[in-house]
Amino acid sequence: MPPPCRGLVSRRGLLGAALGACLLPGPARAGRQIEEPLANAVRTALSAAVADLAPPRPAFDDIEPRLAYLRWLGTMSERLRRRKPDQHTRIEFLETVWYESRRAGLETALVLGLIQVESGFRKYAISSVGARGYMQVMPFWSRLIGDGDPARLFHMQTNLRFGCVILRHYLDIERGDLFLALGRYNGSRGRAEYPNAVFASRRLWLEPAG
Question: Which residues of 129-162 are buried (b: 16+ CB within 10 A; e: fewer)?
Answer without folding.
Answer: eebbbbbbbbbebbebbbeeebebbbebbbbbbb
